[in-house]
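(Protein data)
===
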Amino acid sequence: MFNYGIGGNERKIDQASEGIADIPQNRTLFATKLTGDPAVRPEMVYDLKTTDEVFAHYQPEAEAEFITAEGSFIIEPLRFRNLGDFGKKGIVAQSAFLQDLDARAEAYQQVVRHLKVNKILKAALEKPEAKAALLGVFQTLINELEAAD
């Protein structure tokens, strides 16, 4: 009886070369179903040679459910056409809700950067009367922006 292992190609276990390299110990493999539809039956596909061909053939997609600040739910479809679609930029690019959150986060980060480097603003925030005046200006700007909508 032959002593074979699992690999990309059939190989004897005592051979030095491997058919498929093992996943390194410092890596994690996540596997999940990327569509909401169950498979009707297993499908054997032989001619797919690149990851782009695999994505084009299977066209994985999933519905993501997001919770807004008000507590309501937003459901948006996410489509995966290449490995880049799994990263932050790829997912944010597909979702209007996430684009809005990303823009807000960037705006808040800019405010934090300004607070760290603007000495005049820092000094104004340390004095109670200057801080109150600055908050009054911001409240006026907020009211004008809300009235413009």
